[in-house]
Amino acid sequence: MFIEIDFNSEEAFYIQLRNQIIIGIATNQFQEGDTLPSVRQLADSVGINMHTVNKAYSVLKQEGFIRLDRRKGAVIALDANKLHAMEELQENLRVVLARAVCKGVAEEEVHQMVSEIFREMS
Amino acid sequence: MFIEIDFNSEEAFYIQLRNQIIIGIATNQFQEGDTLPSVRQLADSVGINMHTVNKAYSVLKQEGFIRLDRRKGAVIALDANKLHAMEELQENLRVVLARAVCKGVAEEEVHQMVSEIFREMS
DNA sequence: TCTTTTGTTATATCCATAATATAACAACTG
DNA sequence: CAGTTGTTATATTATGGATATAACAAAAGA
Question: How do residues A10-40 score in pLDDT, each as one tens digit?
Fold first, then answer.
């Protein structure tokens, strides 16, 4: 899987890493039990500091996407708290969809886009 | 329309204001041509600084949701750049849906939630 | 065993951003 | 004229993002 940093983005580096890894899990490029690169290794390969990668991993652990093993490192391990995920999804969608609606995006267009994204991820 | 600040939220005050106003527009609580409270007035009523409200308004203008009129103040005025809105929507959905998918949320559940949010907003 | 790599923790610094506090000015309102 | 408006400027404080070293215990490989 290719992970890279957009140094011109306004998004924090550790957020970019987190999002890319989450998308990697959703697209099955990372699977349950797979190990992520070591913090030093990933930091080196994308050109940022070790602690920034460490922060991304810490957030991913705190949010229930990986497990930090003393011997194996960062291991993909989902604690699927679906109730919590649904609440988070709803709050996120409320803002994201409101923005789109204001700009004239229709409901059918959103449904189509959702379907397309699921197609990409399956 | 009720605007309020969650002082315990991790979200920046000006982002909270921005999102609530956008949701207000999407739900027709604010309509094209309506004026928002003056920066001093809104700052006073929600208990934050004038400049924080000013920043929220500046962002809303920059993102094409309001127009800043010398005499009327902040006026709801949408420049509906739909192409841009669709691109932004897609990028946002990619991350938001990936998070949900990892936690076991199914495509139908997303479609249902989208429909429900559109029902709330119409 | 020795060496290397690993995760982890602890400081420290630098910079940008968020939020606040005054202040001032031009323009509009009553 | 007095009050309110948007706007701009400056300054301060606090927080968060990113980096730089450094150190240590545990695991892995030779």
Answer: 999 999 999 999 999 999 999 999 999 999 9
Per 3-state DSSP, chain B is made up of helix, strand and coil in percentages (nearest 5) of 60, 5, 35
**CA B31 to CA B25: how far, in whole Å?**
6
B111 to A109: CB separation less than 8 angstroms, yes or no: no
Residues of B in contact with A110 (CB under 8 A): 89, 114, 118
**Per-residue pLDDT tens over the stretch B62-94:** 999 999 887 788 999 999 899 999 999 999 999
What is the pTM assigned to this prediction? 0.91
Structure letter (DSSP) for residue B38: P
Give the one of A86, A111, A117 whose C-beta lies nearest to B105's C-beta.
A86
Contacts of B73 (CB under 8 A, 6+ apart): B35, B36, B37, B38
Tokens of A49: 């500091």
For residue A112 the two structure tokens come to 């189509």
CA A95 to CA B26: how far, in whole Å? 10
